[in-house]
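S1.2 Input.
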Amino acid sequence: MTALTLSTAGASTLRADAIVVGVAKGAKGPVVAAGAEAVDKAFDGKLATVLETLGASGAEGEVTKLPAPSGLKTPVVVAVGLGQAPEKDEAYTAESLRRAAGSAARALAGTKKAAFALPVEASEDVEAIAEGALLGAYAFTAYQDGGNGKAAKNEKNDNSRKQPLAEVALLGAKPRDKAHKAAAERAIALTEEINRARDLVNTPPNDLFPESFAAVATAAGKEHGVKVQVLDEKALAKGGYGGILGVGQGAANGPRLVRLGYTHPKAEKTLALVGKGITYDSGGISLKPAGHNETMKCDMSGAAAVFAAVVTAARLGLEVNVTGWLALAENMPSGTATRPGDVLRMYSGKTVEVLNTDAEGRLVLADALTRASEENPDAIVDVATLTGAMVLALGHRRFGVMANDDAFRTAVHEIAEEVGEDSWPMPLPADLRKGMDSPTADIANMGERMGGGLVAGLFLKEFVGEGITWAHLDIAGPAFNEGGPFGYTPKGGTGSAVRTLVKLAERTAAGDLG
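S1.3 Output.
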């Protein structure tokens, strides 16, 4: 993990391998952002002119490296774009700072220490820059160089794989300021758990399966004071968890249901989080075609997000009780696998006709939602890479938010936007429910093809306890980035929804959600 320090040193006096400054798009060309005054002075006040000559515009995510002039203790200046310059008396948004810091940290892979001289006006800026830098510096190297965790050199290009930026010194932040210190500590705890979630998503499915995922959760629980309970195949069968067992019965690696429990003695509210944890999704008997199964190790991203959020809540000592439910299974075809046409008896007692074994996430979530409802929490939020339909609707960078309460859906959406996670509120149209009517069982696991993401949400709603406020986050789009990295988002697992869940827990603790 990249180290973070708060420094009161001046940009011209701190010794580092590089110094990061912000540049924005002004009306007449690039403008140097606050925090870089000393660096601009070392360029005789002409840093913006030099950057423009080099082709820099200040566009978001743009990175320009140039040698430092005399007067600075760092050999390299890294100018990172902040996007459009704010109007007078306005500040850069937290997300623009977060993305800029992330872009700079990625560009500085292989560097030991970098000073970040980006605009800092309040503790929120400290937190945003710290988050962006620590998330942007992430790299998954566990299987490189023979699996010893070190980035290996490529024969064609010795610089193709570099170790992440080792240390971030955040200038303009005050280590003795309580608010600044708290902001940095929150950023460290949050990003460490997001990066742990990313590691889980990126881990190959031959190493991450339900039992090993449960072991990771158990170890983290012991470290951070979270109570962990694991139900194996025998316990699931005894308890009647037909959905989880039905999905997992075709795999050599058996399913698990993991309960994570964080409690605070002063808590007045309880938030339950439920995560889909399909550690590999082949589609089962309804087998996915080639080209659609290569990244299906990421189908446990919802469980990874829930796990990370519960541990973060514990590390931050939030005054709220948070339970996490990880519904873990492998969805594999075999002679023992569930077949299309089979009927499963769920933990709730309802029967489900399985029309498509590749609509398995809703089956494991249904059991977990019913079990979570038995504890009568104040709210339940489930997170899942549930449907390709949601990706078609919203693209790869935003998740859909559905709920049985419009006000709660709005609150979750607004929280997601506040923390920099793009999302969009989606409806649960009652007319789509009829498509899941089954002549054989209480409900089918498939309905109308059009609006498939909404149909899946309606299915889950059937298993939420009466009177319990519930929201569903379909993170199928942003959970796994198959394109190039951008901002603080890496290629591969992203840790989508963790920041939203943690902020939701904080708001619940503060009593802001009723």
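S1.4 Remarks. Residues 178-202 form the longest helix (25 residues).
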